[in-house]
Design brief:
heterodimer; A: about 500 residues; two-stranded antiparallel sheet; 20 helices; about 70% helix; B: about 325 residues; D-Maltodextrin-Binding Protein, domain 2; 10-stranded mixed β-sheet; about 45% helix; disordered N terminus
């Protein structure tokens, strides 16, 4: 009954009118930040941190506001993915795959509402998970050494081939480009710069946000200019808005599975929300098979990644609060906020500062309901932000892209790089090479390499170390199955099958 | 027109927020949010405003890149006379300057204002480790150099890597290059690797282990200070275990070289005021920082000494030529 009394304390703090107001305000701002291409949860939270100081907020209120912004941004990211084919933030990348085709087919409203519900399921279940399992789950991180992480990333890349399924070879080329870009920067293990050409701006590698905004937003602008506004994704309108109860009910298992996968991915430090939505999408895609029609605009294709990435957001709070290890970029920013407020996250936070932890959990639960209300009945408000005429929106997208990227490091070099990525994206679009694998290569390539290098240092270069634990072997088995199975199953999958859709 | 108004409102709010802050002084944290430099900027900036040393809140800018090198170059080449600029610095700054990792930049191209706290270096092992004292660990390394791996939050050749090497070298182990070290993403991650049994010991700062000490996951073998750290009296120093190594990660600031002496002294006074404040003492206690106040013009001499020490050691262990 400890849990209930703790939760009661938490709600006592979170339900004060002032805290509640902060939560609602944070959700609203967060959703807008998430919806705007380029501004994601991590820079959104970073921009707003000074606000908590100038408002003179105490620790709990500051945390409530910032986590509301965080959750809001995770919800909001899907809006521009669906309407513009530009991910509002990196975890919303996978939502473009089915969300945008749905919008093109005139089902933008359905896509938004289904994904809104899926976001709620994911975020709600992961908050419950955080509450029940946080102290327990913190121990999982101790089971993951370099070999296990490497196997986890292999798993992600093994299933990558099927992502842009028109042409496996082009998808493979794209992921190699991504991995190549991930090599740029100072090598962590030897301290030697690689592929930097002596340019200091490249010593830390290329920030994936620069690549994302370049490849999506700037490429979109170029395509728009080229076609004088014809056939561009920008400017999809949304007329009717009805709740597609059938689709929501039909995707219930997808949402539950996606939440579970996302939550686990979120807990693993360094894996984060992008991997969560990716794994959720890929596992649902393989469960549905080719008949599932993933990638053509199906309800399951928007429900899975949204449940996954929002669950991962909750999951990422687990290692952040219990170990002080941020599970994602945004939790790293939140960690900074906590440290500034003189709260040291770590194994003793739950016992030392219960009012902070339980106040936070209670307000996350409240924020979820607020967000569900904002993102389902009121989604039109946010859509209006994005459905202004193209001649207003495009300069707006360009401006926000530039401001967002400049705010990352304050260097104009990143802006040049972003434009270069825009050109690259435009060329690749002409060649019909998908850009999603490039982003995932940049996002995960560095971590994968670091894990392998650490494993090799620890084992004196003995490669069998990579298969030295049950967890690692299990991950390898799933990875190999995920890579090989589609090759053999393809001909069977074309035949009629009993899978209900 | 509502959408226009809404958009204008947001844009206005964001621009208003950043431009009003841009009028005040700026603190550059040469790393992403979440690390030590970010903590220095945010904490010192907040306290300076709280105690009235500055009129408006100090704006924190994160300028990650090249381990602080990007910010250092930026300050030297573009902001050399900016009187409203302070930059967070620590032992990592001097380590990299010593190893020539800032593309030829040197410590005398900026003015170090002072340090107002230090994160003592620590060597910790998992609670169930067979090592009970620093000497147990040293003897095991002497017997099987390849069997003991250290994890730390800095890259290879960084301050966390150098700490165990200094200890082992002072203990008479000559081939320190055989010692395994993996650099992970921060001290907490290094601890999870050590508690998980993937590495045998963790090298880091006191602030990184406080929570894990309380929860009983780790045991600290040694703290690398002259005296035991207040609040952590049960942890023996390396010195008292017969290994003469002192390594602290000080937290401080530098300002551009081109500012006037008046501006320099003004920042030094403000920094001293922070050091003397109750808020800072509270923040230090909460974050495992030990008192370490060296503010003003003689701090530069300390920096020069540290830089030459680390340069000598880095050459001996082969990190630089």
């Amino acid at each position: 009954m400890d849990l209930l009394s703790n939760l009661a304390t938490g709600f006592g703090i979170a339900l004060s009118p002032y805290t509640l107001m902060l939560a609602v305000f944070g959700c609203f701002i967060g959703t807008i930040i998430g919806a705007l291409p380029g501004l994601g949860p991590s820079n959104g939270v970073a921009i707003l941190i000074p606000l908590t100081f100038s408002l003179g907020l105490d620790a709990t209120s500051a945390l409530v506001l910032m986590t509301a912004v965080y959750y809001g941004a995770m919800y909001g990211g899907r809006i521009s993915s669906i309407l513009l084919n530009i991910p509002g933030d990196e975890p919303a990348l996978m939502t473009t795959l089915d969300g945008y085709p749905m919008a093109k087919a005139g089902r933008a409203g359905d896509a938004l509402i289904i994904s809104g519900f899926a976001s709620f399921t994911g975020a709600f279940l992961s908050t419950v998970g955080l509450m029940l399992l946080a102290p327990l789950l913190a121990r999982i991180a101790f089971q993951f050494g370099p070999a296990e992480y490497f196997a986890l990333y292999i798993l992600a890349f093994a299933t990558l081939g099927g992502i842009a399924s028109n042409n496996q070879a082009k998808a493979a080329i794209a992921s190699c480009i991504g991995l190549g870009i991930a090599m740029i920067g100072v090598d962590n293990n030897s301290g030697m710069p690689r592929l930097t050409f002596g340019n200091m701006h490249l010593f830390d590698g290329i920030d994936f946000l620069v690549a994302i905004v370049g490849l999506f937003a700037i490429t979109e602008v170029f395509s728009f200019i080229e076609s004088h506004g014809k056939n561009t994704s920008i400017g999809i309108t949304l007329d009717k808005l009805k709740v597609p109860w059938r689709d929501i009910w039909n995707t219930r298992w997808v949402q539950l599975r996606g939440s579970l996968v996302g939550f686990i991915a979120g807990i693993l430090p360094g894996a984060g929300a992008s991997l969560g939505s990716f794994l959720a999408y890929m596992s649902e895609k393989s469960i549905a098979g080719e008949k599932g029609g993933f990638g053509t605009g199906v309800a399951k294709g928007v429900a899975a990644p949204e449940a996954g990435n929002n669950a991962a957001a909750g999951g990422a709070l687990v290692p952040m609060l219990t170990l002080g290890v941020p599970g994602s970029g945004t939790t790293a920013v939140l960690l900074a906020l906590l440290m500034t407020l003189n709260i040291t996250p770590g194994p003793t936070l739950f016992t030392d500062r219960p009012e902070v932890v339980w106040g936070l959990i209670a307000s996350l639960l409240i924020a979820n309901f607020v967000l569900l209300a904002m993102n389902v009945p009121m989604v039109k408000v946010f859509v209006r932000v994005l459905s202004v005429p193209a001649w207003v929106l495009l300069p707006g997208v360009t401006m926000i892209s530039f401001v967002g990227i400049y705010s990352l490091s304050g260097s104009y070099f990143d802006l040049l790089l972003m434009v270069a990525f825009g050109v690259l994206g435009w060329v690749l679009r002409k060649l019909d090479v998908p850009t999603v694998p490039i982003i995932l290569g940049i996002l995960l390539g560095g971590h994968m390499e670091d894990s392998l290098r650490r494993a090799m240092v620890l084992s004196d270069g003995d490669w069998t170390y990579l298969f030295s634990s049950k967890i690692a072997i299990g991950l390898w088995a799933v990875a190999i199955a995920g890579f090989v199975a589609p090759l053999f199953l393809r001909k069977f999958l074309k035949k009629p099958q009993a899978v209900s859709d | 027109m509502t959408e226009f108004r809404l958009k204008a409102l947001i844009a206005g709010a964001i621009i208003g927020l950043s431009s009003s802050a841009a009028m005040s002084a700026e603190c550059i944290a040469p790393a992403n949010p979440g690390g030590g430099w970010d903590f220095t900027c945010r904490q010192i900036g907040k306290i300076m405003h709280d105690i009235g040393a500055v009129d408006s809140p100090i704006q924190v800018t994160n300028m990650a890149g090249a381990g602080g090198g990007l910010a250092f170059t930026h300050v030297v080449t573009e902001r050399n006379t900016d009187a409203d600029l302070i930059v967070a610095a620590s032992s990592a700054t001097t380590t990299r300057l010593a190893q020539n990792a800032y593309a030829g930049m040197t410590a005398d191209q900026v003015r170090f204002v002072g340090a107002i706290g230090a994160d003592p270096g620590v060597i910790v092992v998992a609670a169930n480790s067979k090592y009970q004292s620093l000497n147990d660990l040293i003897e095991d390394v002497r017997a099987n150099p390849g069997q003991v791996a250290f994890a730390g939050g800095s890259a290879v050749g960084g301050f966390d890597h150098i700490k165990p090497l200094m200890i082992l070298q002072r203990s008479g182990i000559s081939d320190v290059r055989a010692i395994k070290y993996i650099g992970v993403d921060g001290g907490a991650d290094a601890i999870t690797q050590t508690v998980g049994g993937f590495t045998q010991a963790m090298t880091g700062d006191m602030s990184e282990i406080v929570g894990f000490l309380k929860s009983g996951d780790v045991r600290a073998l040694a703290v690398l200070t002259d005296e035991r750290v207040p609040g952590f009296e049960s942890i023996p120093t390396a010195v008292e275990q017969g290994v003469d190594v002192v390594a602290v990660n000080w937290r401080g600031l530098y300002v551009p070289k081109g500012v006037s002496d008046d501006v320099f002294n003004q920042w030094a006074e403000r920094l001293q005021a922070v050091a003397d404040s109750a808020e800072w003492k509270e923040a230090m206690a909460a974050n495992g920082l030990a008192p370490f106040t060296k503010v003003g013009s003689n701090f530069q001499n300390y920096i020069d000494g540290v830089v030459s020490d680390i340069r000598k050691l880095s050459k001996e262990i082969g990190v630089i030529q």
